[in-house]
Amino acid sequence: MDFLMPLIIGLVVGLIVLFSLLSQLKSVSQKHEASDYVVQNSLHLNVRNDRLIDKHTERQMVRQAMPQGGSAGSVPMQNASHPQSSHSPGMHSQGHQQGGGLTIVDAPKNKH
Amino acid sequence: MADLIQFKCPSCGGKLEFDSASQKMKCPFCLSEYDASEMQQEDAVLDQKDEQKEERYDTGDSTWGQGETDGLRIYKCQSCGGEVVGDETMAASKCPYCDNPVIMTGQFSGDLKPDLVIPFKLDKEAAKKSLLQHMEGKPLLPKIFKSENHIDEIKGIYVPVWLYDAQADASYRFQAKKIRRWSDQQYAYTETSVFSVDREGSIHFENVPVDGSEKMDNTLMESLEPFNIKDAVPFQTAYLSGYLADRYDVDEQTCAARANERIKQSTRQEFTRTVQGYDTVTIEHEQIHLNEGKARYALYPVWLLNTSWNGEKYVFAMNGQTGKFVGNLPSDKRKAWAIFFAVTAAVTVIAYFIMGMMQ
């Protein structure tokens, strides 16, 4: 088993080297774009709009801090139905925007 | 019968060819040089009407049997009277008997007259040299290919291309995400901000080339890009003297589909590039309208080199303007496996020792 990881690394590096050497022999390929033919500074934007529509936070238990018998997992922290505007120390505030309005929501408190 | 133009040296009557080094018409016998514009009067015949074009197809006084000339055109060399036989698209060639360059004017008259031509800037020797350079520094290329390889044929050919101009009016909706990660002693946090990003606008493209010749491989032509259109000059038959040329046999409408495909892909890339500051960007909605479309007909200079090895044919091509050289090469499979196993073994042993030292 001690030899398995070095062998995998060796195979991956061997394949990378092989494919890079093989790619040197191929120089004929189709062009999929026309970027060489874009007139300089011809891109004009009439609409330029960036809207935040959702913000959520997930937390995952760090392995070292895992209590005995517990399992690390992803815990979604958002709770848009009970928005609160207060901040708890050590807690992260998150924005949640739905239908154009921005709401600040606190993450649920740590149960430990 | 007035199908062919042959440029003769006013000094000695020898054949005049376009010289890529001096960008002038040169007589190989007395070394006189003439500006291509001095030969312009020869092109007056190109402005004849389409009805007259049909006169160029001449099989009258030859010994060809019925049906033998289907798909062929036969011309009479004005220097030696020999027959020059070509397919329906051949527009410039050399007489097989006296080697004089001949230009089939009928292939460029009326609507078939190209708008532009990029004259050759590099000669046959440069093409040969580039082939040797192309084979350098490639460990997987069979050595025997390089040593045994003989060039079967080198030809300088003007390839017909359609050049498209277009304005793309586009409207996009992207979904973009910003991801922030941090952790404390107990948890790792991932904050994802989702944005709806709208972009609307226009972008302009000029001279997007599409190969207008059925005979020429489209992928090979695209691999030779870009050509620098700034060096293009109004078409004159004098530039073709000494080279091969074809007229287009794929029309403007058919080629437009390929140009549109490339223009749309680039429009997509350019608009996506305006969405910055995000970790991921995906297109949710796209609408592209191409308008102000315009097409021009041009001839692009290409050196074609044909070689054969192990019963297979290999085609290489060089951009006759920029010198860009392309062509797929064969690989030595035994050497490929040897390199793969050698690298794998070496890296495995090194990794084994490094990991052993770390434990």
Describe the structure.
The complex is a heterodimer of chains A (112) and B (359). Chain A has one helix at 4-23; strands at 44-61, 74-76, 93-98, 101-106. With 112 residues, chain A is α+β, with helices and mostly antiparallel strands. Chain A has a domain at 48-61 and 74-112. In chain A, the strands form two sheets. Chain A has a two-stranded antiparallel ribbon with strand order 1-2. Chain A is flat. The relative contact order of chain A is 0.13. Residues 78-112 of chain A have low confidence and may be disordered. The termini of chain B are far apart. The interface between A and B is large, with 60 and 76 residues.
Number of discrete helical segments of chain B: 6
Q: Which stretches of chain A of 5+ consecutive residues score pLDDT under 50?
A: 78-112
Can you write the helix and strand succession of chain A as a string? Answer: HEEEE
Let me know the number of strands of chain A.
4
Structural class of chain A: alpha+beta
Radius of gyration of chain A: 26 Å
Query: Strand share of the residues of chain A?
Result: 25-35%
Let me know the number of strands of chain B. 16
Largest sheet descriptor of chain B: 11 strands, mixed
What is the makeup of the main sheet of chain A? 2 strands, antiparallel
The domain count of chain B comes to 2
Percent of residues in beta strands of chain B: 35-45%
